[in-house]
C-alpha cells in the first residue's frame, strides 16, 4: 500500500453557500433553516486506500471516511498525522446538531493522540468568559458553576449538553480552552460606529478585518435578502456584513494569538477552533482573516451529512468526514415562532414574520416588540429561545407584544407533536 497522500493545500473553490446560522450583532437575525428557531443573528469500514480511483468513484463515500479537497478518500488513521502538523484547524458545525459535536469530539481525540500540545478555541463564548474557561480546565468548577460563571445561556443559548462532552475532554486532558468571540454589544459598536471609534483596549486589540471577498459578500447579501427587504432597510445590509466581518476577525485574531503565545512559550500547540460552518466554508470568513493576519498554515474541516446520493455538499472545505445516520439520537427541534429578531431597548423587535408561521397565526407583525413571554421579561433574543425550549408542543404561549407604544397580550399556539 502506498503512503497516504498529504492533504492538499491549494485554494478552495467558490461554491454556493446554503443557509447557515449567522449571528450578527446589530441586526441579530435568526434563520429557521440551519438553527433552532429565532436564534439571534445580533448554527463502517473505509474503502482501502490502495483501491483504484475509478473503482472508488463508483461508490458513495462510506461513513468513517474522510474526503479531501481533491476527491480522494482517507481513513482517520492515515489522515490524522498530516492534519496534526498544521498550526490551526477549523472544525465547522451546525450548532444544534448532535452528530456534528460527536464528530468534533472524535476528531479532537484523534488529533490529540498525535499532537498532545493542543489549544481548543470556542466560538460559543466571548472574551469576558475566559476566566470561567480557565477555572473549568483547572478543575475548579462543576458544570452548573461553569455555566453560570460563563453566562452560557445569555452568551450562546444552545443546549450546553451538546458541548459538555467536548468540555469534559478538554478538562480531562488539561487542554487550554480559549474564548474566540466578542459580545453582541461590541460587534454592534464596531459595525455601526466604526473601528476608529472604539479604543483598541476595549476591543481586545483586535485589528480591523480584511474586506469580504466578492463571493462572500454575495452570499451574505443573499442570506440577508431572504429575511429583509433591502428597500425597507438599505443600511441594514451594510451593518449585517460589517458585523459578520467583526465576528470572523475576532475569532481569527484569538486563534492567531493562541498559536503565537504557544510558540513563544515553546509549546508549539495545534490550535483547533470550533465554530459555525458558515464562518469557514469555501475559505471565506475566518480562513480569509487568518490569511490577512499572516497565519496561512490552516485547514478547514467539515462533516459530510448522510444523504441519498453521492453528491458532495455545496460548501467546500479542505476535508470532510462522512457521518453515519445518527438521526435516532438527534434531539427534537425546538419550537419555532417563525420570526426574525433584532435587539430593542424594550425587548426584542420583530424584523420579519415567516408566512404560515405560528407568529403570523398569532397576529404578530414586523415592527412589533416582544416584551414578555410566559410572563417573563424578554430583554435579548436568547431569553425567548430559553422559554421556547421549555415550551411543549400543542400548548399556548402568552406573549406581551408592544405595538405603537401599547402592549397587549397575544397567544402563540404551537401545533401538537406529529
From TrEMBL:
Keywords: Lipoprotein, Signal. PROSITE patterns: PDZ. Coiled coil: none annotated. This is ChaN family lipoprotein. Residues 1-34 form the signal peptide. It comes from the Bacteria. Residues 337-405 form the PDZ domain. SMART domains: PDZ. It comes from Halomonas saccharevitans. It holds the Pfam family Cofac_haem_bdg. The keyword Transcription regulation does not apply. The keyword Magnesium does not apply.
